[in-house]
Structure to design on (288 residues):
């Protein structure tokens, strides 16, 4: 009987301690529960609002018609991730985490990542500038960074071009934006520069009249501004006559090829010669 009584007396303090611990734990949980519920509400509602703002901002930028779809998606995603970071910091603040030090850590980490990826981020910055200022559009024929081709896609990191013989070229945006850009499709009209050489014995006025006659037959040549047909150079073996008509951008090569052929055939029919360089060689005999 004494052994049982002793065991009961020994167990009572342990049971009391356990009950006290559980009671304290319950009180702490009850005190902490509002913070947990508040943090969950802030997190869920904040993420929902961030998603809605992303969609609204993307649609608003696209409706303006002045912002590229790729740039609109990038900027809206940037806004979205910024809002998510703000929501997470706010959630941690509800839990009691010091947000000032946490924000400093995020800033330092972002700075370190920026230094590590400065080349890549430079291409992204160039892509944003290109999409914003629009030095060229998809479908334009451009020359930049030592290459030329038709623009197929403008991304945040690279620009894709296709050469006239259908080669695919991928150029980093940083190289394009830091270089001189020549956009052959920047304006609706272009000037075709042609040069026709005639021999010194031919009638210059007749040759100019023949060129003018062929220009008048070409419907794609614009009347205003008027074509220029003038003697430009007295070469080693020819009198060079320039012909500079204006055409629509899409007709540039068609008019150039058609006029070159038509003027050559007309010169042949009218007896106007197109000289080619000649070299005379004189050989002396030995006196012996």
């Amino acid at each position: 009987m004494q052994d049982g009584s002793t065991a009961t007396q020994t167990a009572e303090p342990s049971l009391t301690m356990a009950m006290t611990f559980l009671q304290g734990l319950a009180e702490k949980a009850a005190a902490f529960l509002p913070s947990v519920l508040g943090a969950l509400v802030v997190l869920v509602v904040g993420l929902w609002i961030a998603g809605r703002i992303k969609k609204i901002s993307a649609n608003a930028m696209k409706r303006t018609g002045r912002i590229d779809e790729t740039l609109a998606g990038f900027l809206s995603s940037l806004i979205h991730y910024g809002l998510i970071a703000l929501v997470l910091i706010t959630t941690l603040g509800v839990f009691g985490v010091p947000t000032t030090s946490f924000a400093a850590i995020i800033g330092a980490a972002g700075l370190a990542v920026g230094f590590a990826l400065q080349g890549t981020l430079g291409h992204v910055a160039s892509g944003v500038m290109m999409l914003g200022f629009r030095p060229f559009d998809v479908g334009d024929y451009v020359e930049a960074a030592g290459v030329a081709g038709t623009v197929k896609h403008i991304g945040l990191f690279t620009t894709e071009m296709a050469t006239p013989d259908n080669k695919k070229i991928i150029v980093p945006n940083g190289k394009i934006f830091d270089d001189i850009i020549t956009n052959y499709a920047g304006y609706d009209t272009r000037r075709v520069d042609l040069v026709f050489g005639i021999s010194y014995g031919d009638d210059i006025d007749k040759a100019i009249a023949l060129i003018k006659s062929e220009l008048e037959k070409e419907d794609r040549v614009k009347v205003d501004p008027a074509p220029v047909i003038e003697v430009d150079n007295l070469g080693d073996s020819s009198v060079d006559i320039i012909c500079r008509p204006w055409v629509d951008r899409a007709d540039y090569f068609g008019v150039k090829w058609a006029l070159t052929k038509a003027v050559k055939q007309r010169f042949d029919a009218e007896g106007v010669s197109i000289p080619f360089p000649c070299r005379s060689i004189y050989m002396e005999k030995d006196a012996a």
In short: The first helix runs from residue 2 to 64. The CA atoms of residues 9 and 122 lie 76 Å apart. The mean pLDDT is 81. Helices lie at 2-64, 69-95, 99-116, 118-133, 173-177, 204-217, 252-270.
